[in-house]
């Protein structure tokens, strides 16, 4: 835990220093929110019948909260970037010499950073968004609690996916060529831009076998009350199972990579 608070404090100080970057990101976020809300308003005005029981208010809430959560559920930062930079610079040897398990080191580092980013990039824009837009929310405190629990599992699933993606850099040294494909795949399959229920049935069946829809679609569906009753804990249980599976895969691959890793020079 002391390491967690050290990383949190370090991230908080870093974010406090770059104030221009903070305001630039806030401006870009609200431009995206304005475009998304305008788009959904136009689509509902043109053909409201194609959205079924989902109201315009629910859809706008889904889009706005999804864009705000993108500040902490993002591929722009994470263990994949850290691994790639450390391997290219050769500093990965320092990480291997630390008296702490490397995957646990990564979890502490980036969970601390996420806590700081939540304070800067999630809470303030969420308050402003509720003042500017007619957003809905969970119908009870219990529903909001399920949303927060689902959000924790979402972060862990994305973290382990990013970690597995970062393993590629042990073979290629650079993730640049793969990054756009990975970024686009997550945007499309996670339900961040378009809710999964709007996809064709055959595509929904395919996506349901993957962990990506659990990153955005599940917590957002709980937030707007699309999931209720047994559907909520079924969805959260599915997230928990994927967290265990992805953690096991990370441990297995990391053990094999660590055993085969050869460091030259020095």
From TrEMBL:
It holds the Pfam family ABC2_membrane_6. It comes from the Bacteria. Keywords: Membrane, Transmembrane, Transmembrane helix. The chain crosses the membrane at residues 20-43, 115-133, 145-168, 180-199, 206-225, 231-254. This is ABC transporter permease.
